[in-house]
Design goal:
heterodimer; A: 703 residues; mainly alpha; Cytochrome C Oxidase, Chain A; globular; B: 321 residues; alpha/beta; Immunoglobulin-like; elongated; disordered N terminus; disordered C terminus; binds protoporphyrin IX containing FE; binds copper (II) ion
Amino acid sequence: MSIAGLFEHPLGRLGLDSLPFWKMLEHPTRSDIVNGIIATGAASVVVLGALGLIVVLTRYRLWRVLWSEWLTSPDHKKIGIMYVVIAFVMLARALIEAGLMRAQQAYGLGGGFLSPDHFAQLFSTHGTIMIFFMAMPFLTGVINYVMPLQIGARDVSFPVLNSVSLGLTAAGAALVMVSLVLGKFSTGGWFGYPPYTEATFSPGVGPDYWIWALTLGSLGSTFTGINFAVTVYKERAPGMKLMRMPLFTWTALCTSILMIFAMPPLTVATAQLALDRYLGFHYFTNALGGNMMHFANLFWLFGHPEVYILILPAFGVYSEVISTFSGKVLYGYRSLVMATMTIAILSFTVWLHHFFTMGQSANINAVFGIASMLIGIPTGVKIYDWMLTMFRGRVRFTVPMVYSIGFILLFVLGGMSGILLANPTVDYQVHNTVFLVAHFHNMAVPGLLFGMIAAYHFWFPKAFGFRLNERWGLVAALCWIFGFMLAFFPLYVLGLMGLPRRTVAYTEPSYVPLEWVAFLGALLILTALASLLWQLWVSIKQRDENRVFAGDPWDGRSLEWSNSAPPPEYNFAVIPEVKGRDAFTMSKEGGTAYQRPDTYQDIELPKNSALGPVIAALGFALAFGLVWHIWWMVILSFLAAVAALILRGFARNTTRIVTAHEVRQQHLRWIDAVATATAIARADENKPANEGLAQHASDGVVP
Amino acid sequence: MTIAWGRWGVLCAVLLLAACASDTHLTFLNPQGPVADAQRWHFYVVLGVMAVLVAGPIFLLLPFFAWRYRYGNNTSRYTPNWEFSKVLEIMAWGGPIVIVAVLAFFVWRDTHKLDPYKPLVSGQAPLRVQVIGYDWKWLFIYPDQGVASIGIMAMPAGRPVSLQITSATVMQSFFIPALGSQMYAMGGMVTQLNLQADKPGRSLGENTMYNGNGFHQQQFTAQAMTPAGFAAWIGKVRADGIPLDAHILQLVSQRATRSDLIAALPGTRSMGSNVYFRRTSAALFPAVVKATRDGERALPPAAFTPAATVPSVAPSMMEHK
Ligand code: HEM
Ligand SMILES: [Cu+2]
């Protein structure tokens, strides 16, 4: 291609027909109008949302704050919060899409209101978003916030890389959002199997959006994995031996290791697919030596460990929550650590169960079936250990605890359907049906999502200094639990009745009643989402009554509760000395919590860096150019990104000092507040009396 | 509001009745052949073992613990620092290990017993059927009878059917739930499946791997008939079918649903919602496999010449013994 050729089509494939309402104007058929209106409505929400944000930021002069306090901040706590914000935005979109799909299927007997193509974009974006831009950012955000605090560190090992990872994830999420406004997303589902996603069968921009969104997201996750693993290995406070780490940190470590090993196969597989699509390679084509099953192998070599990347941090959250709200040491710590590690390792040995029906020999299927069931052993151990943690405890039914109990009961059912699917004999019957959809949602919703929402309730007071409203939290939790049951239990039955997944419409009348039950469930889930938003609003309004500045609202056990809420940017005025497991409980009981050190020291912190947002913008431009074949944009943004990385290499003075004086002032302000706060019994946990200071056994009370 | 609900209730009742009246078998829980029947038992056994041994104890104990050890119940014991018991720990690991060991036994046995490649035990030689997945219909070729069909897969009850499956387009998954296992159809490769219907009847057949706009319409009827009925069916197809030449196959391979195909094909008006072909060549299936693998558009003339000697399909990675 000549230089002039690069500019021949300055907008590449972009045209008026990329707009969501174009088809409706050209062919105003009933179906085109309905689908056009829905798509245009969605696009307007994106555009208006972005505009609204710009207006608010300008009106309240927040651009500078946004830039210097948030976007360029290397502080793991702020990065964590930004990840969670992305997760919530994407969760809202994906849930609305889920509701739309359920509505379509409820009306799907012989038609419905959505076109097949529109429906296919919905399940593809829903799945892609939920996994890569809801679940991954959520857990990454929670780990980011909590893990360095739990191990007594000042930050992660590579704070600027952390901000770059966030930037890459945000760019990927933005790309999926832009696909609502310009062009169409892939219709190939969240795993995008070729040859359907090859240029021969899907010539449009859809699969390209999918490929580059995943590439951005998975690069971000790979860096995150490296960053977290190094942090756990290198940044622990003195005395924080591996076997003294809180269980959440253990799961964070296992998840990071999984990220490091599992993301590359995905990046490779999507890169190969990109070569097929852009340069006419033949990795996964039908002809000329291509083989789609290579893609399936690589994808699930990522995909199965991925589900454990998603679930392990949630297991960590449940361990912390159940132990804290049972007022008891975690039962079977050593077993839980071993079980977590076992799961992490086994998760690489089972990927073939995603294609038992490929036609391989019975020996292979039987071996992989049994390997898959083996994961049930450590998972079962975990369930028993959590139950034994409640045994002879003092269980408080707070919001995170309600999610945890709902989780255990529902997760057991999901595990049972998983064991069923691990039987090749049964999988031959329910593979690719909505039984499978029910199964993985049964793991993803009560497992991962409840875990993340529990984490949000648990650590929110730490991050923002006030508790979330308990009543609305309970409403949301119950809506989630019952909504989930209504939405997904019917799918087990429908799957057994032969309904394939990804079906836009059907001709079998007996499917209708259960489809309607599932639709009602989806409505209840949307109510749950609305309750969460309302809860946030109410809680912000009532924040002054619910402050917990002293920092320990739940009588917490690990180090993150041992400082103020919110914590200072350097986390700990004095790096704690760890003497055992449940470090903070130990110091509370030993009377060594809340000490006034004699001397304070200067603290060195990383300076803000623009690299993260710059890479985000350039990564987005690069991916957008690739999707639409805007080659000048591709070349310029690529060169600029390389230049930015090289320039960063020349940056000196990348740290700044918080003086001992400032540290002392801040610390004393907090310690003084603690001294004047009233320690409360657990019965008053959800009352304004809770200032974040707990009574404990050493005070001679049953807390 | 009440009126809407009332109407809705009536609709539900009508639909349920319609479902009971529908004579197409949908599920392996109402099996129509030995494979689905065995799968049903395997399903119930695994489900039963887990319901009793896994779910049962947890569903009883967890609510009990949560209630008995609730905050504020000061009559129950409280051991805040108790963190380990050897006996309980052995049970926590041992229980799941035993359950998985028991289930692994069933997995090993039944995966081999129900290997879809394994010919079914029967006094009769299996009927050979070759299946080609197109977007968005299945083509069934009866190489020994010289006929083919779209929309219906006829088979004699009581006699095993041995299927060879491929795709002329993207990946698909061939599935008749009430008869047995599903199996992927992949371009340039051949997979196998052995099924049998025990009695005459209609079963739902479908594709479960999403392949585009017409995906949900890629269904067919698996029609089990008496042996005499099957012979009559073959005779009728030979009489009424249209010849399957290069042009017709070109139409079949368009990305279109079965009803679009029927509208485009000449001479299908009398066939209802199915399409029948007579005088098909036994060389067609292997030729499609080869052409898909080699990326060739056109098939050799032999693929359309009936009664040519039957070349066997070149071995591919999906065939194993
Ligand atoms: C909580 C409410 C949710 C509802 C109502 C919901 C609903 C749906 C529906 C209707 C489908 C399409 C099913 C079909 O193919 O027939 C679907 C697919 C999917 N969902 Fe969800 N979902 C929810 C949450 C989640 C969560 C939390 C995750 C993951 C973290 C998730 C991941 C997926 C994936 C991966 C697919 C498959 C997409 C594909 O077919 O490629 N969903 N969901
Ligand atoms: Cu898996």
